[in-house]
Automatic annotation (TrEMBL):
Record field: transmembrane: 16-34, 66-88, 109-133, 153-178, 185-206, 232-251
The species this protein was found in: Lentilactobacillus farraginis DSM 18382 = JCM 14108
Name of the protein described by the UniProt record: Uncharacterized protein
Keyword set, alphabetical order: Membrane, Transmembrane, Transmembrane helix
């Protein structure tokens, strides 16, 4: 498993797409903070707050919150991570060569999940750091003390990366089950849109626990407490665990 992790990270550090994605993520962050234009894809934020955010004098803290509201866009950009880490191998069936080389199937799946999570977290950190540096370059005040700014940014980055990873874990199950890179990519694109649409036309209260980006915005705006957040995080952990178990079960039954 360790060798698989090393191989994955080595391959990515020598892949042009990895650095191109980093540049695009940083550019999106810089443009958002500089222009003060925020908004995600099918993600709701309080209209009154968006109005105040557009009209207020931005600080580094409000810039971080603005980036969080816009963070749903990252999931679509991170489809490239999904492809680089696991998508291409399954669509081309080259993963079989890796398994034949000696790594266990469980080790292979664990390595892929870990690589994907670390890649996503790194890119999300780039997203927030680029925004903070842009705010500093523009001479904006912190809006809070530095300790609170960094802790808020780090916590938000972890939550955003984790929620994106949960969606990607479901896409991995679809990929392993069908072998279709297009099908799993379509799922990633459609999932947040479908949840938002269903939430608006139904009274299914349980949907809020998988409306990941809306809850991320609420956390950033401190609209929910730590205790209120616990059901969301446990639901996400449960989905991640189920997807890992399904992925492992399916790949164990596949013939090489």
């Amino acid at each position: 498993m360790i060798n698989q992790l090393r191989a994955d990270f080595y391959r990515q550090t020598h892949t042009f797409g990895h650095y191109l994605l980093m540049v695009l993520v940083a550019a999106f962050s810089i443009i958002t903070v500089y222009s003060k234009n925020v908004g995600g894809i099918m993600v709701s934020a309080p209209e009154d707050y968006l109005g105040r955010l557009a009209g207020m004098k931005w600080t580094l803290l409000s810039g971080t919150r603005g980036l969080t509201i816009s963070s749903s866009v990252l999931m679509y950009a991170f489809i490239s991570i999904f492809i680089m880490v696991i998508g291409y191998e399954f669509s081309q069936q080259t993963y079989k060569n890796t398994l034949v080389s000696g790594i266990s199937r469980s080790g292979f799946i664990i390595a892929k999940f870990m690589t994907m999570l670390l890649d996503i977290f790194f890119q999300v950190l780039v997203f927030y750091i680029a925004g903070i540096l842009t705010g500093i370059a523009m001479g904006r005040k912190t809006g809070t003390d530095w300790g609170n700014l960094f802790s808020t940014t780090l916590l938000t980055a972890i939550i955003v990366a984790f929620f994106i990873s949960v969606v990607f874990s479901m896409a991995i199950v679809i990929l392993i089950l069908t072998g279709s890179l297009i099908g799993s990519a379509v799922f990633i694109v459609a999932f947040p849109m479908l949840i938002t649409i269903l939430s608006s036309i139904t009274n299914w209260s349980w949907l809020k626990y998988i409306d990941f980006f809306s809850v991320t915005v609420k956390i950033s705006l401190k609209e929910i407490t730590v205790n209120q957040f616990q059901p969301y995080i446990w639901t996400s952990f449960a989905i991640l665990a189920v997807c890992f178990g399904l992925a492992l079960t399916i790949i164990k039954r596949k013939e090489l």
